[in-house]
């Protein structure tokens, strides 16, 4: 009975603060900012990859970003991303690439703002520190995507070499598509851990952020499945928005994703506050 009461208090605290602190509006802001940051990030990353000789990066980046999205949502926007990324660029060290990195870092800043509100903390770090940290996130993500791109390019060769020596492992290797999905899922989990630990003000232990991350992953899976089913059966986006249908679908999907992401932070904060309150009560 006590656990039911505790769960009820935690959920009321999380959802109540989300509603009280304009979580709905913050989710809209986060969704639009994420969409605006997506293209600059991929342009910057592809330009850097091309400069380093990783010409297959564009295809890999698209897979890493969109393989975990429902196909009805990912297919239209991923085609536009490929069209953008396949344009030849040679401006790595020009203002264009620097501006792309800057606009991509704005997406990181929106994540920081959302998590600061969710964790109910006040930002005390300087603007310069925060901007440098956001740019570092963009650069680290780019390097990570680049490393994965190189590995996936050499993956078929490594598989053939492994099979030549150890034929018994063939049933366990799966396909490149499966490995892309697994890697994309790992990138999402590592990204969630990184943003929850380092972006908001204050310090949190790993155990403090696990409930929110699990909630976010499950919520994303359920939310995207329901939204994809809705698009299949009941949607009138194409007739309503005509040529803007794909972008509107992406915006609504990112809004759902952003709302669940913020609620994950709210849940972590509510759990921490509950146990802090219990610790202050005399036994």
UniProtKB/TrEMBL annotation:
It comes from the Bacteria. Keywords: Cell membrane, Membrane, Transmembrane, Transmembrane helix. This is YihY/virulence factor BrkB family protein. It is found in: Cell membrane. It comes from Mesorhizobium marinum. Its main location: membrane. The keyword Magnesium does not apply. The chain crosses the membrane at residues 30-52, 92-115, 135-158, 178-199, 206-230, 242-263. The keyword Nucleus does not apply. It is a multi-pass membrane protein.
């Amino acid at each position: 009975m006590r656990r039911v009461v505790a769960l009820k208090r935690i959920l009321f605290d999380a959802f109540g603060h989300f509603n009280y602190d304009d979580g709905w509006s913050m989710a809209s802001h986060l969704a639009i900012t994420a969409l605006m940051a997506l293209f600059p990030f991929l342009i910057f990353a592809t330009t850097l990859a091309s400069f380093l000789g990783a010409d297959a990066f564009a295809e890999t980046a698209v897979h890493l970003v969109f393989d975990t999205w429902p196909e009805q949502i990912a297919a239209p926007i991923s085609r536009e991303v490929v069209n953008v990324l396949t344009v030849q660029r040679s401006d790595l060290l020009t203002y264009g690439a620097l501006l792309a990195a800057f606009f991509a870092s704005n997406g990181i800043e929106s994540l920081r703002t959302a998590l600061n509100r969710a964790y109910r903390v006040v930002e005390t770090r300087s603007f310069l520190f925060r901007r440098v940290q956001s740019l570092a996130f963009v650069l680290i993500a780019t390097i990570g995507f680049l490393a994965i791109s190189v590995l996936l390019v050499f993956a078929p060769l490594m598989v053939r070499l492994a099979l030549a020596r150890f034929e018994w492992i063939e049933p366990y290797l799966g396909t490149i598509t499966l490995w892309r999905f697994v890697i994309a899922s790992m990138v999402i989990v590592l990204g969630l851990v990184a943003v929850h630990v380092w972006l908001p003000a204050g310090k949190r232990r790993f155990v403090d952020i696990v409930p929110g991350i699990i909630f976010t992953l499950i919520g994303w899976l359920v939310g995207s499945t329901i939204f994809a089913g809705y698009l299949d059966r009941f949607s009138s986006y194409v007739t309503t928005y005509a040529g803007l249908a794909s972008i509107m679908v992406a915006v609504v999907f990112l809004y759902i994703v952003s709302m669940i992401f913020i609620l994950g932070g709210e849940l972590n904060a509510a759990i921490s506050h509950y146990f802090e309150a219990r610790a202050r009560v005399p036994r």
